[in-house]
Amino acid sequence: MRKFFASIDFWDMLLAAACLATFLYAAIFVPNFLSGFNLSQLAASASEKALLILPMTLLIITREIDLSIASVLALTSVIFGLAVQAGIPTLAAIPLTLVFGAILGAFNGILVTAFGLQSLVVTLGTMALYRGIGYILLGTGSVNILPPAIVDFGINNLPGTQIPWTVVPFLLLAPVFAVVLQKTPTGKRIYALGGNPEVARYSGIDIKRMVFRLFVVSSVVAAIAGIVYTARLSNARANNALGMELDVITIVLLGGVSVFGGKGKLTGVMLALALIAIIRNVLALNQIGGDAQGMVIGLLLIGSLLVGNFWRSAQETRQRSRAMRETQRVSSAP
After folding, report:
1. pLDDT digits (tens, 9 = 90+) for 30-66
2. Residue 311 CA neighbour count, 13 Å, CB half
3. What are the Cα distances from residue 160, in Å, to 42, 111, 172, 231?
4. Which of 75, 144, 196, 259 qualifies as a cystine partner to 134, CB 3.0-4.6 A?
């Protein structure tokens, strides 16, 4: 039994307990929280963030970051909207949008790998660049007339359920990312790169190729999120998802992914996503606006970092004490 509990990640247990406690509080004290419509809206509102946390988790584990991810979402939303407005069939507009997303990610990846620039600085620049291109293409207007299939995808639920269609891309991609990270050699290389880049390089890992591919994957997933966002709101605008990159990074860090790389799992990140989605929904039902919601989420992140640091310090202290006792036992043995 002790081994079983030792194998369970403390932070994941804490997040799961927080999710359960918050859900139970909302179910008992917040009117209309358990209504089918509200739960469906709760899931739908997290659709894009749920997609974006997948590649962001992998990037942060490798000591990289993509601040342009929400701007890629906005620009690909504009490209998708303009494509369907121009009469391009939906089945052609979707892969076209994904290709544009891959190009944007490749640009980020080239600047980071070929030129040796810091991803924080590169994606800070492309965050403004990509959103600026969106404004050049569409201005301050929007594309509001979309094909019926896209509109239906954005507002309807799976037949016989309260599960919105917009969460289906996440439900399909999340197991793939989890398996790749936890069960494949690629995942081991990602952790090795984040843990110690120099050791990873001497171990034969092609660091530049891996980082480049992660940036391409990040932007392709952001393009998928851009299509989902366009369908859910039934419009394409250059200011879509403004500031969403901060929410995504907050969720990933709250989920236990180390900002120094090499540590973290998607299970914790998904629990953090659920926790923040529930908290935002509860605040909205209580007529608390977006600015106050952002303050609460920021305090939650700071609190989680403090608790995480305290827990790691306590673990290190216990490990040192155990090592000292073992050393004393060996030295005192006849």
Report:
1. 999 999 999 999 999 999 999 999 999 999 999 999 9
2. 12
3. 18, 47, 19, 21
4. 75
Is the distance from CB of 144 to CB of 235 less than 8 angstroms?
Answer: yes
Domain assignment present for residue 253? The answer is no
What integer is the mean pLDDT of 99-114?
98
CATH code, domain with 146: 1.10.3470.10
**Alpha carbon distance 111, 119 (integer Å):** 8
In a domain, 334, yes or no: no
Domain with 58 in it: 35-241
Distance CA 251, CA 263 (A): 15
Distance between CA 117 and CA 122 in Å, rounded? Answer: 7
Residue 333 has pLDDT above 70, yes or no: no
Q: What is the DSSP string of 223-234?
A: HHHHHHHHHHHT
Q: How far is CA 299 from the centre of its chain?
A: 19
pLDDT digits (tens, 9 = 90+) for 163-215: 999 999 999 999 999 999 999 999 999 999 999 999 898 889 999 999 999 99
Residue 252 lies in a domain: no
**Residues near 194 by beta carbon (within 8 Å), at least 6 away in sequence:** 61, 62, 63, 258, 261, 262, 263
Token pair listed for 129: 């660049």
Q: Domains in the chain: how many in total?
A: 1
Q: How many CB atoms lie within 10 A of CB 44?
A: 19
Q: Model pTM? A: 0.92
How far apart are the C-alpha atoms of 257 and 194, rounded to whole Å?
11
Q: Which residues make Cβ contacts (< 8 Å) with residue 35, sequence separation at least 6?
A: none
